[in-house]
Structure formats: C-alpha cells, structure tokens
Amino acid sequence: MKGVLLVNLGSPESPTAKDVKPYLDEFLMDERVIDAPKWLRTFLVKGIILQTRPKKSAKAYAKIWWDEGSPLIVLSERFANKVQQHTKMPVALGMRYGKMTIKNALQELKDKGVDEVLLVPLYPHYAMSSFETVVVKVLEEQQQYFPEMGVTTLPAFYKNADYIQALSESIIDGLKDFEYDHILFSYHGIPERHIRKSDPTRFHCKIDGSCCKINSVAHNTCYRHQVYDTTEMVKAYLGLPEEQVSSSFQSRLAGDPWLKPYTDFEFVRLAKEGKKRLAVITPAFVSDCLETLEEIAMEGKEQFMEAGGEDYKHIPCMNDNEAWVKVMAKWVNDWEATGELAVTPST
Ligand SMILES: C=CC1=C(C)c2cc3[nH]c(cc4nc(cc5[nH]c(cc1n2)c(C)c5CCC(=O)O)C(CCC(=O)O)=C4C)c(C)c3C=C
Ligand SMILES: [Fe+2]
Ligand SMILES: [Fe+2]
C-alpha cells in the first residue's frame, strides 16, 4: 500500500534552555548544516555555540510558544491532519530534529500496511541544510529499519504552478486591509559556500546572480536560483511592478559570508529609501515558526520602525490554509493514482 511521509524541521520540546540545548546540538551537529570537519564542528557547536545560544534561543522561543506547543509543530500537525482528510492513503508527519522522529513516522506508516512511501520534505527550495538532509536521513532510516519499503521523493516545488498560485493567493489574502509601498520576500539564508558545494557542475553558480538566467542542471540544487525564481513567479502572478518587490535573506549565523542582501539591512535601506509601509512574506517556510513569528513579525517590525518605517505587516505562511492543503492533496493523490510526480525538477 502507498503512504505519505511529510517532514519538517522540528522544534525543541519546550522553550527552555534545558530543552533547546539538545535540539540545537542535534541540529547544528548535522554535517549538512555546519559542514566543517567533525572535530571542528564539535568544537564550534559544543565548545562555543551551545555555551550561550540555548539561553538566547529559549528566550526567543518563549515569545512565540503556544499553549499547544511549538507553532512549527502544531501548524505542521494541522496541515498533515487536513491532508489526511483528502486522501485514502495513510499520511504521517516526522521532524528532521527533535522527538517527532522520522523513524517513528516510518514505523507508523509500516503499522498501517504501507510499503511504498512518497516523501515530501516541507521545504519549497533545495538546500543541503534543509531538503537534502531530510532525504538523506529518511533513506538512512529506511535502509536500516525498513528495508522492505520503497521511497520516492517529491522534488523541491518552488516553481510549481499550483504552489505559486496558492502562495500568491495567500499573499492577496494577507494584504487585505494593508496599504503597502513595498513587498519584501525574506528567505532563510544559507552560507554562500553551500551554494558552491551543491553545484554538481562545480563552476556554474557564481552567487552574484550572473548565472541564474543561464539554463543549467545546477539550478535543480541551487537554493539562490530557486528562491529568486519563486519571487519572480509570484511577482508575475500578482502583476507587481519591479520596483515594489525585492528579496533578501534572514537568520544568518556569525562566521562565513551568507547569501546577501541580509534582511535586517534591507529593513533599514527600504525605510531610508522612503518605503514607509512594508509587507514581508517568508516563502522559504510553509509553516510559521521561530524565524517568521519572532525574527520577522516581532524583531523585524521593530527594526523597520526604528529605521523610520511607518507601517509593517508580516504575511503568515500558508500553514494549513485550504488552498495549500488541496494542492498537497492533489500532488499525493496524483502520485497514488499514476505513480507519476506532479512536481519534477523542470516544472
Ligand atoms: C528554509 C529552510 C531552512 C534552511 C535552509 C535553514 C538553514 C540553516 N539554519 C541554521 C541555523 C538555525 N536555524 C534555526 C531555526 C530554523 N531554521 C529553519 C529552516 C531552515 N534553516 C526553521 C523552520 C527554523 C525554526 C524552527 C522552529 O522551531 O520554529 C535555528 C534555531 C533557532 C536559533 O537558535 O536561532 C538555528 C540555530 C543554519 C546554520 C542553517 C544553514 C547552514
Ligand atoms: Fe535555520
Ligand atoms: Fe545562479
């Protein structure tokens, strides 16, 4: 029988330093997140980052935590439950890090008689630190514990027409009653080095954008290319003028150069340029989470207003909205019926 495995990033058990620490430990010790040699990663993570960051992150998590738990987990569960209502196949939800493990989700599917799994990483764009690490982990667990199961992965859906439509409609919805001068598409950042590492040609990606209009197989795994494609397609769908839209990258860690422009610098630049009413959309995330609710909706607003902005709105992620649920249900049901994937690297 066929079944569906949805995988998102995961959250700590609670917004306390005690619970944030093991979560960050697992997350940042992932060789696809901090891709230094193991001895150096161990030194950086356990010797430096984990000494101070859990306390700081716990404070941020406490600001956005819900009675039911982490917004990312709760919203992903609501989404999975709604997708389940639209398909006969069993649907399970796992997280790459934390207690809601991928192994348990695969076991849940197995217990329901599933031996053919459609894996859907809940990331619209391919990055080694998000999409790729999910795929690798699922295949590791499958090979070790569920060798009889087959796994097919839905590719990154950043430019799929149904996804673009659902995202664009959610923006229209979010902009009701909000007068804006500018819409900022703020994507989670990654180190520039990761772009080069993920380029199978080893020479295509130049990071500066000069490569992105030249067709290449590199784009299938180029996060930068993919996020700019999402912006362009939404811009076209909504008929937005060039000068009213821009893209930027948030949530960087200290150290290496990360993709630019940086969202916090953009808040200041846009306010100074007279874009006084700013709408911010965060399409790298399908579910609201720490990075959208705290960094963008709270901190971002403060930064923009301090720089001279007058009005600010974070447009929520698609979360469990009906249109997005229906898109996902269509993709998984098409796969069940035909064995074909609605999303391919070229769609
Ligand atoms: C869009 C997908 C994501 C990519 C790509 C990504 C890369 C990436 N992240 C870190 C470090 C941290 N990210 C943190 C939180 C976080 N990251 C994503 C998604 C992507 N990360 C999400 C959805 C969340 C929120 C989780 C939640 O519980 O709500 C954190 C933890 C919080 C903090 O301490 O700031 C860290 C750390 C790196 C280093 C990286 C690429 C190399
Ligand atoms: Fe992150
Ligand atoms: Fe490029």
UniProtKB/TrEMBL annotation:
Q: Give the GO biological process terms.
A: heme biosynthetic process
Recorded metabolic or biological pathway in which this protein acts: Porphyrin-containing compound metabolism; protoheme biosynthesis; protoheme from protoporphyrin-IX: step 1/1
Q: Name one GO molecular function term.
A: metal ion binding
Q: Where in the cell is it found?
A: Cytoplasm
Q: Which residues bind Fe(2+)?
A: 188, 291
Q: Where are the transmembrane segments?
A: none
Q: Does the keyword Iron apply?
A: yes
Q: What's the catalysed reaction? A: heme b + 2 H(+) = protoporphyrin IX + Fe(2+); Fe-coproporphyrin III + 2 H(+) = coproporphyrin III + Fe(2+)
**CC terms in the record's Gene Ontology section:** cytoplasm
The record's Pfam families line, in alphabetical order, gives: Ferrochelatase
- General function of this protein: Catalyzes the ferrous insertion into protoporphyrin IX.
What does the sequence similarity comment in the record state about its family? Belongs to the ferrochelatase family.
Q: Which HAMAP family match?
A: Ferrochelatase (MF_00323)
What protein name applies here? Ferrochelatase
> Which organism is this protein's natural source?
Maribacter orientalis
Which gene holds the coding sequence for this protein?
hemH
